[in-house]
User: Fold this.
Amino acid sequence: MTSVRNLVRLTLNASSRRLDIRQSLNTNIKTAMKSKDKMTLNTLRLDASKEYELASRTDLSDTELSEASVIEALLPPFKPVQEIDLVLQELLGDEQLALRSIDPVKKRKGRVIQEFYKRVDKSDVDSAILVQRVDALVTED
Assistant:
């Protein structure tokens, strides 16, 4: 009898956890849509699609993927890597940032990214590419 109660309790917890995840994904998707954050939106929709696939709901998964592609087509494209590099080169040539070269590399990278986003809107840049470019350009002296 106790094991049945535990099983029911575990099942209810798992289903409520799935519902919480679904609500969280939907809330985050709406927020990303309102802020036109293409990277977050696509990531969340793909995550939602994977969740639906795990729940054997390929119909909902396909819908999420289709909606993601429609929304992606409506959003402006990200800046090309060349434009990102130009801004990063300007920042790295900036005397104020250069004077901080005694800081650890990780801290300098964080400052470069922070300064980058002061000049460029976050929604215009794929953050993963930005981090890759900063990693390549900011090295130990």
In short: The CA atoms of residues 33 and 41 lie 6 Å apart.
